[in-house]
Amino acid sequence: MSDYLYYPGCSMEGSGRSYRESLAAVCAPLGITLHEIDDWNCCGATEYVSLATLPAYAMITRNLALAAGQKQGDQALVAACSACYLNLAKADRYLDEQPLLAGQVNDALAAGDLHYQPGSIRVRHLLEVLLTDVGLDKIRAAVKTPLTGLKVAPYLGCLIARPDLNHVYNHDQPADLDRLLAALGCEVVDYPLKTECCGGHLTQIAPKVGLELIRRLVAEATNRQAAMMVTICPMCQINIDAYQGEMNAMFGTHYAMPIVFFTQLLGLAFGLDARDLGIGREYTNAKALLAQTVKDAPAKTLAAAEPPPRNRPDKRALPMPRMPESGVH
Q1: What whole-number distance in Å separates Cα of residue 304 and Cα of residue 307?
Q2: What's phi and psi for 200, nearest 5 deg?
Q3: Alpha-helical regions (H) of 48-149
Q4: CA terminus-to-terminus distance, the chain
Q5: What distance in Å separates the CA atoms of residue 107 and residue 327, rounded to the nearest whole number?
Q6: How many Å apart are CA 185 and CA 147, to the nearest integer?
């Protein structure tokens, strides 16, 4: 199966724009096609379920109902954002296990002429699709510029390996991202904090706690001599990337650890143009390090114009995705 329905989620339109761009760029070399579901809505991210259970699950399940109505054959629904994946998968599971909740959710969906039968569509994370359906052999075969010598810390974040509703991962030390990065030629360091939480919105709710969680992750990656961290989650990326300055100020440290999306490294290894991968849009810029790694690649690969500087998040604002400014596509 190489044809999937796709739920992008809000982050891909804002803070995760580089994830969206690099994913779109690597689909062709990987031989996969993603069909964005029509009329999707926000999944509610991480907080809404704890504030209002029924509205939250109705909002999430609306996307499942849309996908189930739009799928062709046994198409699965793929999410690249870890929070989106978990919310969609949890909603499907919980509605199956709790008939009362399923009935209440479907009563709400009926207002929009929608209905969802739990189990109607399988929800999968992008990483699992690449490893299981595409496979490492095909990924290796697509590599034109091995990322030899690039030392990376693989960071999954806390939302994928546990609760692992599809029973895919080793819960304690999953090596899935490690294996994919090694297939690109990277030197993957042993990173024991790969499933630890990045703190999410604690940077605003309890700054000292949130920034300490980020500090631990960055310090361990630095101690392991990683040149950069690599993630699969837009929340993790923006949190660790954008708040390193505040973290350094609070703890008197001087870390400068780039964190990039795994799809960006896929694209570089496939010989794609950095302009198509969002390289250089990070707050802690990874472009110089990556340029050293791919110095023997075709000149255009990392000769892209620098993306416009990004304004750091308002200190009073939660690290939520933002829609692109006018004129940005």
Answers
A1: 8
A2: 55, -130
A3: 48-51, 53-70, 82-97, 99-109, 126-129, 136-142
A4: 30
A5: 40
A6: 5
For 259, other C-beta atoms within 10 Å of its C-beta total 27
Which fold, 144-302?
Answer: Rossmann fold (3.40.50)
CATH class held by domain 3-126: mainly alpha
Q: Where are the domains of the chain?
A: 3-126, 144-302
Q: Calculate mean pLDDT across residues 251-280.
A: 96
Least confident residue range of 46-55, 209-218, 288-297: 288-297
Quick count: other Cβ atoms within 10 Å of Cβ 216?
Answer: 15
The answer to whether 269 and 185 have CB atoms below 8 angstroms apart is: yes
Q: Residues near 105 by Cβ (< 8 Å), separated by ≥ 6? A: 54, 57, 58, 61, 95, 116
Element (H, E) at 212: helix 207-223
CA 85 to chain CA centroid, nearest Å: 9
**Average pLDDT estimate for 307-329:** 46
The predicted model gives 68-96 an average pLDDT of 96
Single out the residue of 81, 17, 95 nearest to residue 277, CA to CA.
Answer: 17
Spatial separation of the C-alpha atoms in residues 282 and 301, rounded to whole Å: 17
The DSSP bridge pattern shows strands 123-125 and 187-188 to be unpaired
d(CA 192, CA 180): 17
Pick the most confident of 7-16, 46-55, 218-227: 218-227
- Residue 201: the pLDDT is 86
Q: CA–CA separation, 293 vs 323, rounded Å?
A: 32
